[in-house]
């Protein structure tokens, strides 16, 4: 369990005086001066670190019972505490702590045995209390990493992005200027955020993009956040510096509040160009350390404030909130319950069944939160490695292909075609009892009769129809003689008959018109009442026609 | 001519709460509603509350211009508890603005002053009722209410109780919910109870402490049961027989030897003990309280609530920041501004380590020194550590006793006096003996016991282990017996 330690009062909330002289966060954001020999053939190296603010998906605010919202009437989801009314006090949502903990664990972080909340002070209309509750001195977790593999988002190497720390904090209100007025909406005020600070381990815009994309997948898989940058539920600040290979790191600039991966990459590129141009044209003047914004139209960064204008946030422990101590047994339990991560399932399935990475990713994309697509696929396969590749083709190419087609309004779900039915169908095809063409008919039929088709009542869902009934409905004949139905002898007879029935086609083929072969295949299929394997019929015909 | 104590007691409760624009009065607001017949443990009792405790029916202004006309949209948990037990809220009482002060003199200019209601002799001019809960203390002392709630951050209940000759309890930190209490310094603020005798204070105290979802520092029922169990183990079977009392050597003010002899005769043992860090408690307190105040009061002027000044849109050309500056400059009094500036400075990046953190360290030291003196284990320690503590505790104290204040109530300074003296250091010194228990989060109660050489009352403070209010009440009653026979 999460233990809230009230026996903290009067005890120095901050570890020791010595350790806070150099608050860890500041010192380690200062980039190390050691540089690995880079193999990049370009002269300049870009160093990138990220600060990510990800909204916690708990449905309520971090310290008040008001619900979180998006796109609702302004100032409707507001508790007195969110508006900082006198006498109101914060009450920590333990669900937010749990979600932050599993995120930290999934990032391989060390969990602080005793983490505390602090206040960061500034006067601005987006913060009614004039301070934000955050974790400055003792964050929830530190020292994690996330591996980026070569090829992800066009990253050119496999490397680890170090996680400096992960902390819980409040989001601010939204404000906008309309004419002379500044309008403030407190709906977002007090929403729980995770701030995830990386080490300066990325070296290109693509690598930074790869990290953000991977983190989005991780958050969704854990259910700790939706990672939706468009809605502002995940926002990125990026630190960029540029230096010549082998030289110490350059001056870094921070670009704030980026809300898409495309803008992130654009901001890094713009900043990189700006720094290089500065070093080339005015090498005698040091580059100013500053905070910048991104103009989303020109994709150029612009200055917000310089280091000299930086605010003193007067961080102070918040004595309204007890320290969070995590029971090691509870932590072990959370660790054991961590779900399989997207990259782990890709690795496992590609290794086990020799599948295409892209196809596994398509299955993940069907449901990034609960992996319904993966679970469905594995149910269809049923540990039957013989049909593993076939099952993937049927799901990704036939089922999803049909869904994407024309008038179909069906959406994929695991009940659209029950895993049992699909599995049964694939086995029948493999055993030669029905043909692939039959399979396609069945898939089309089931999708058109699915529960998500408004013409069909829910109690008439496709999944409840047994396969044999579907076969009857579609007038598909099942060959009883199992695999022997397509033995070489039968197939040869069938093809001979087809050749006899279509002498003109045979003539044309022999004259060099290879296209007419399909006419012969069609004849053979008709003769077999659709049961024959079209591919094998084609091969047999080619053999026979050579003679 | 001043009302004397004898005269006042002959009025015995016929005084009614009142507000006035010309005469001194403890009240800033009175409840004109007729008390309805009620049931409960406080049925028919009239209780005043300090002006920083939210009450939906009243404006809760903390005696500050910045919150004039602020009507809280909810009622504080502690007041809800009183009302639920049938109490009638008599009114709201004046205080030093936001609790910052020791004499209830830091008031908006349109407020009439608060005095100790009676002088020892008819020819004596009125004196300060103490602060910051001076209004609550004066209201109780004059008898216009049965009891009152105050708040105590560094002595704001105990000091006025001592000056006004009544009982004032600052309970253990975390015992009473702070939801609805406008914060001065979160880690120190406690809701306190003022009454004319211990019976009254105990009756009110029995009602308000309970766990609260609205305040995470308010302790859980299991911690309360643990404390009750420990109290049960340490309450003497009879009177104060076997009770161990300590007198801190570092406190120069002495308690009357007659009182100490009496306590001994009742079976208590008394010894001198040492709390070396107590000397540095006052500066540590002012750093921490001011730092927390600078944070807590930063919300005022933001435009979501507050005075008409705050709500008004101001000049058209005014920016948000300018507007906030104007409201805060006009809305806060001089003492509040002084402490906010001092607190802001203590938290600034350059000063933090050497000022705020040092004060925090001193607080920690003091707390440890208190814990080393008590033989009663701290109920909030886990069971393992409690057991260790009990093993070591062959010897040790139950209660620490010393005068509440360095002196009797000071004569009221006129506004001119304050201008010439200016520094206000003397006012800060008044808290010298009350801040240690605040910093340590321990329960402490001022009981009227003595009369100073000038004839004005002086209280004695009893401080015990966290959650041991019951032990303090027990010893307090014996002291009341002694006072009665003086």
UniProtKB/TrEMBL annotation, chain A:
Domain (Asn/Gln amidotransferase) ranges: 375-545
Listed Pfam families: GatB_N, GatB_Yqey
Domain of life: Eukaryota
Catalyzed reactions per annotation: L-glutamyl-tRNA(Gln) + L-glutamine + ATP + H2O = L-glutaminyl-tRNA(Gln) + L-glutamate + ADP + phosphate + H(+); L-aspartyl-tRNA(Asn) + L-glutamine + ATP + H2O = L-asparaginyl-tRNA(Asn) + L-glutamate + ADP + phosphate + 2 H(+)
Gene Ontology annotations of biological process type: glutaminyl-tRNAGln biosynthesis via transamidation; mitochondrial translation
Keyword entries, A-Z: ATP-binding, Ligase, Mitochondrion, Nucleotide-binding, Protein biosynthesis
UniProt subcellular location: Mitochondrion
Enzyme Commission number, as recorded: 6.3.5.-
PANTHER family, A to Z: GLUTAMYL-TRNA GLN AMIDOTRANSFERASE SUBUNIT B MITOCHONDRIAL AND PROKARYOTIC PET112-RELATED, GLUTAMYL-TRNA(GLN) AMIDOTRANSFERASE SUBUNIT B, MITOCHONDRIAL
Family recorded in the similarity comment: Belongs to the GatB/GatE family. GatB subfamily.
General function of this protein: Allows the formation of correctly charged Gln-tRNA(Gln) through the transamidation of misacylated Glu-tRNA(Gln) in the mitochondria. The reaction takes place in the presence of glutamine and ATP through an activated gamma-phospho-Glu-tRNA(Gln).
Name this polypeptide is given: Glutamyl-tRNA(Gln) amidotransferase subunit B, mitochondrial
TrEMBL record, chain B:
UniProt cross-references to SUPFAM superfamilies, sorted A to Z: Amidase signature (AS) enzymes
EC assignment: 6.3.5.7
InterPro entries: Amidase, Amidase_CS, Amidase_dom, AS_sf, GatA
Domain Amidase: 34-469
Family of the protein in this entry: Belongs to the amidase family. GatA subfamily.
Function: Allows the formation of correctly charged Gln-tRNA(Gln) through the transamidation of misacylated Glu-tRNA(Gln) in the mitochondria. The reaction takes place in the presence of glutamine and ATP through an activated gamma-phospho-Glu-tRNA(Gln).
Name by which UniProt lists this protein: Glutamyl-tRNA(Gln) amidotransferase subunit A, mitochondrial
Source species: Kwoniella dejecticola CBS 10117
């Amino acid at each position: 369990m999460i233990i809230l330690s009230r026996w903290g009062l009067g005890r120095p909330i901050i570890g020791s005086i010595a350790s806070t002289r150099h608050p860890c966060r500041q010192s380690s954001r200062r980039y190390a001066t050691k540089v690995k020999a880079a193999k990049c053939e370009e002269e300049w190296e870009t160093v990138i670190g990220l600060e990510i603010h990800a909204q916690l998906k708990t449905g309520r605010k971090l310290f008040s019972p008001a619900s979180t919202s998006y796109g609702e009437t302004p100032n409707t989801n507001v508790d007195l505490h969110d508006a900082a009314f006198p006498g109101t006090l914060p009450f920590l949502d333990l669900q937010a702590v749990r979600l932050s903990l599993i995120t930290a664990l999934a990032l391989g972080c060390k969990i602080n045995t005793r983490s505390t909340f602090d206040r960061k002070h500034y006067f601005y209309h987006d913060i009614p209390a004039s301070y934000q509750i955050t974790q400055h001195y003792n964050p929830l977790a530190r020292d994690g990493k996330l591996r980026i593999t070569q090829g992800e988002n066009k990253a050119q190497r496999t490397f680890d992005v170090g996680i400096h720390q992960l902390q819980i904090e409040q989001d601010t209100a939204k404000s906008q200027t309309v004419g002379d007025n500044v309008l403030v909406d407190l709906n977002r005020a007090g929403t729980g955020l995770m701030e995830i600070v990386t080490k300066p381990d990325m070296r290109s815009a693509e690598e930074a993009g790869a990290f953000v994309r991977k983190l989005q997948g991780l958050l969704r898989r854990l259910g700790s956040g939706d990672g939706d940058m468009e809605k502002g539920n995940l926002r990125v600040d990026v630190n960029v510096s540029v230096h010549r290979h082998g030289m110490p790191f350059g001056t870094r600039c921070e670009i704030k509040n980026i809300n898409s991966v495309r803008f992130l990459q654009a901001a890094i590129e713009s900043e990189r160009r700006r720094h290089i141009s500065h070093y080339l044209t005015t090498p005698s003047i040091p580059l100013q350390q500053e905070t910048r914004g991104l103009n989303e139209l020109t994709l150029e960064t612009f200055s917000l404030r310089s280091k000299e204008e930086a605010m003193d946030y007067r961080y102070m422990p918040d004595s309204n909130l007890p320290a969070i101590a995590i029971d090691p047994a509870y932590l072990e339990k959370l660790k054991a319950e961590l779900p399989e991560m997207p990259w782990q399932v890709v690795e496992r399935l590609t290794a086990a069944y020799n599948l295409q990475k892209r196809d596994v990713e398509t299955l993940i994309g069907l449901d990034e939160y609960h992996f319904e697509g993966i679970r469905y696929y594995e149910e269809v396969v049923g540990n039957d490695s013989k049909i593993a590749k076939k099952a993937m083709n049927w799901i990704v190419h036939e089922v999803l292909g049909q869904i994407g087609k024309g008038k179909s309004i069906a959406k994929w779900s695991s009940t659209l075609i029950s895993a049992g039915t699909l599995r049964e169908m694939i086995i029948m095809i493999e055993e030669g009892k029905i043909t692939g063409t039959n399979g396609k008919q069945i898939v089309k039929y089931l999708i058109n009769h699915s529960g998500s088709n408004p013409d069909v009542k829910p109690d008439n869902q496709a999944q409840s129809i047994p396969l044999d009934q579907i076969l009857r409905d579609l007038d598909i004949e099942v060959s009883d003689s199992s695999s022997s139905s397509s033995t070489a002898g039968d197939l040869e007879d069938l093809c001979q008959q087809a050749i006899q029935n279509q002498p003109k086609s045979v003539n044309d083929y022999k004259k060099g018109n290879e296209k007419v072969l399909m006419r012969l295949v069609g004849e053979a299929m008709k003769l077999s009442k659709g049961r024959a394997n079209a591919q094998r019929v084609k091969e047999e015909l080619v053999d026979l026609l050579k003679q | 001519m001043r009302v004397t104590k004898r005269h006042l007691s002959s009025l015995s409760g016929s005084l009614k709460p009142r507000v006035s624009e010309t005469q001194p009065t403890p009240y800033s607001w009175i409840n004109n509603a007729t008390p309805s017949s009620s049931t409960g443990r406080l049925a028919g009792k009239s209780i005043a509350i300090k002006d920083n405790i939210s009450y939906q029916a009243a404006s809760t202004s903390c005696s500050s211009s910045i919150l004039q006309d602020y009507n809280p949209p909810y009622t504080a948990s502690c007041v809800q508890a009183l009302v639920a037990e049938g109490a009638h809220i008599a009114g709201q009482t004046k205080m030093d603005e936001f609790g910052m002060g020791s004499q209830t003199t830091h008031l908006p200019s349109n407020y009439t002053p608060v005095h100790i209601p009676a002088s020892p002799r008819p020819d004596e001019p009125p004196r300060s009722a103490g602060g910051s809960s001076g209004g609550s203390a004066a209201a109780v002392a004059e008898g216009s209410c049965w009891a009152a709630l105050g708040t105590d951050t560094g002595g704001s209940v105990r000091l006025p109780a001592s000056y006004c000759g009544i009982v004032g309890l600052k309970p253990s930190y975390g015992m009473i919910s702070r939801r609805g209490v406008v914060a001065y310094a979160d880690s120190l603020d406690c809701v306190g109870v003022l009454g004319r005798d211990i019976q009254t204070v105990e009756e009110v105290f029995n009602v308000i402490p309970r766990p609260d979802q609205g305040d995470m520092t308010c302790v859980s029922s299991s911690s309360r049961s643990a404390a009750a169990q420990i109290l049960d183990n340490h309450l003497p079977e009879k009177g104060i027989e076997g009770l161990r009392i300590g007198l801190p050597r570092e406190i120069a003010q002495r308690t009357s030897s007659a009182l100490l002899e009496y306590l001994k005769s009742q079976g208590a043992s008394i010894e001198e003990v040492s709390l070396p860090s107590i000397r540095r408690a006052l500066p540590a307190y002012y750093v921490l309280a001011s730092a927390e105040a600078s944070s807590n009061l930063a919300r005022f002027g933001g435009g979501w609530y507050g005075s008409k000044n705050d709500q008004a849109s101001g000049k058209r050309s005014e920016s948000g920041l300018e507007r906030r500056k104007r409201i805060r400059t006009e809305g806060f009094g001089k003492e509040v501004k002084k402490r906010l500036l001092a607190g802001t400075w203590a938290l600034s990046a350059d000063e933090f380590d050497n000022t705020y953190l040092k004060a925090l360290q001193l607080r920690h030291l003091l707390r440890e020194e208190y814990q080393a003196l008590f033989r009663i284990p701290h109920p909030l320690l886990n069971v393992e550590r409690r057991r260790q503590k009990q093993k070591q505790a062959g010897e040790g104290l139950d209660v620490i006793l010393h005068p509440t204040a360095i002196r009797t109530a000071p004569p009221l300074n006129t506004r001119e006096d304050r201008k010439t003296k200016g520094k206000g250091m003397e006012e800060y010194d008044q808290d010298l003996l009350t801040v240690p228990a605040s910093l340590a989060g321990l329960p402490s109660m001022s009981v009227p016991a003595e009369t100073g050489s000038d004839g004005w009352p002086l209280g004695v403070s009893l401080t015990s282990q966290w959650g041991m209010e019951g032990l303090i009440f027990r010893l307090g009653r014996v002291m009341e017996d002694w006072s009665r026979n003086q």
